[in-house]
Amino acid sequence: MSNRSAPAPTSVAAMYRALVGIGSICALLIVTAYLLTAPAIARNRAELLQQAIFAVLPGAETVRPMRRDAGGTIGPAAPGEEAAFHLGLDAGNRVVGVAIEASGMGYQDLIGLIYGYSPARGQLTGMRVLASRETPGLGDKIITDPVFVGSFAGLAVPLSQDGARVAHAVEAVPAGKRSQPWQFDAITGATISSRAVAGIITASTAQWAPLLHAQAGRLEGDTP
Amino acid sequence: MSATVPGPGSPADDLLRGLWRENPVFVQVLGMCPTLAVSNSALNALTMGLATAFVLCLSSLLISLLRHVVPREVRIASFILVIATFVTVVDYLIQAISLALHAALGAFISLIVVNCIILGRAEAFAARNGPLRSFLDGLGMGLGFTLALLCLGGVRELLGSGSLFGIGVFGSQFEPWTVMLLPSGGFFTLGAWLLAIAWWRRRREAGARVQEAN
């Protein structure tokens, strides 16, 4: 027979004290790590976005953050204000186009992307995926396949006669079946991801293209 | 969960045990979710392995330091709190180093919290041993986990992409086995490694028995 007695139950106060103490140590560690890494994370995010903006607006020399107010009127963003889109200007301060961020559901998770759009030409000028968790080796080709990524430059986003809506949605079609300027080749083996990209751009351009077309003068007027 | 019982051992034994003899993946078959999910490339495998090793070392150290002040009734909640803290720290660190790497590892960084290797070592070892031994145990298990992930990630990237750490190995004529990058490829590769290790161990044990008989 064992002569070891069962340990005495711990008081609620002791348990409470231990958990609060450990929680405080953990909170201190997390806040310290956050404070130490926040500048580097913010710098990495800004660099990634800047690189993507210039990649989707070929010819742009400078980029200006822009805002859209509740009434839909566009204009330059105030310092520190989050940009609704980015205006790209060439060396002569002429408008190259705008870079717009958009996101939507992909095969596995949300896909975040940025695309360039030229209101004057009614065309996309480029596209880059900023965030994606698509299948490695298949769906992630929306990031890595240069032919796919390059196919967005010059893709048409035609507006209706009155300019109030997009006349044709951007479409992903099977490779080799492209017959319209608003169509691009889907990636074989990543059809869902390709269609997701088309859907994200379609939804975003439906909102932005008529607005930017109607206020194209404001974009030009914002250049010095 | 097949947690090992820690016995009296030297610091070297604490460190080396997890590397091979009690390797968390190949011997204890723990932490299968990240093992299969992020071993689709050698770089992802290495990063996930090192991130897990970082969390293992530091959480084992802190849990060992706090072992006399944590009541038995709330020890699991305390361990999870400590582990989640170091996972959050490592998440920030990876984002500060490379956002591309962070994106490639996806949700699996956060899921280190529920990796049973870490909680297993906290409960089976760190809560019963001193800080130095617990740190070395965590380091050994973490490096063993990294080694196992690299074994899987290396094979899967070689066959699935024809490269290793992003550097082409087989040339442009190589037709990649895309299946190796998918979850099924993870299971195939893990199965092949477990089979090879079991075969090698049995052969070694049979050799030892023959030697003893002679």
Describe this structure as you would to a colleague.
- The complex is a heterodimer of chains A (224) and B (214).
- Helices cover 38% and strands 22% of the residues of chain A.
- The mean pLDDT of chain A is 88.
- The longest helix of chain A has 45 residues.
- In chain A, strand 1 and strand 2 form a beta hairpin.
- Chain A has one domain.
- Chain A is extended and about 85 Å long.
- Chain A has 224 residues and is an alpha+beta fold.
- Chain B contains eight helices and two strands; from the N terminus they run αααααααββα.
- Chain B has one domain.
- The N terminus of chain B is likely disordered.
- A two-stranded antiparallel sheet of chain B has the order 1-2.
- The interface between A and B is medium-sized, with 33 and 35 residues.
Summarize the structure.
The complex is a heterodimer of chains A (224) and B (214). With 224 residues, chain A is an alpha+beta fold.
- Hey, which two chains have the biggest interface? A-B, 33 and 35 residues
Strand tally of chain B: 2
Q: Which regions of chain A are unreliable across 5 or more consecutive residues at pLDDT < 50?
A: none
State the order of secondary-structure elements of chain A, H for helix, E for strand: HEEEEEEHHEEHH
Radius of gyration of chain B: 19 Å
Q: Give the structural class of chain B.
A: mainly alpha
How many structural domains does the protein architecture of chain B include?
1
Radius of gyration of chain A: 25 Å
Fraction of residues in H or I helices of chain B: 55-70%
The strand count of chain A comes to 8
**Unreliable sequence segments of chain B:** 1-6
Shape annotation of chain A: extended
Give the biggest sheet of chain B: 2 strands, antiparallel
Give the mean pLDDT of chain B: 88
Cα separation of the termini of chain B: 38 Å
What's the assembly state of these chains? Answer: heterodimer
* SSE order of chain B, one letter for each helix or strand: HHHHHHHEEH
Distance between the termini of chain A: 93 Å
Percent helix range of chain A: 25-40%
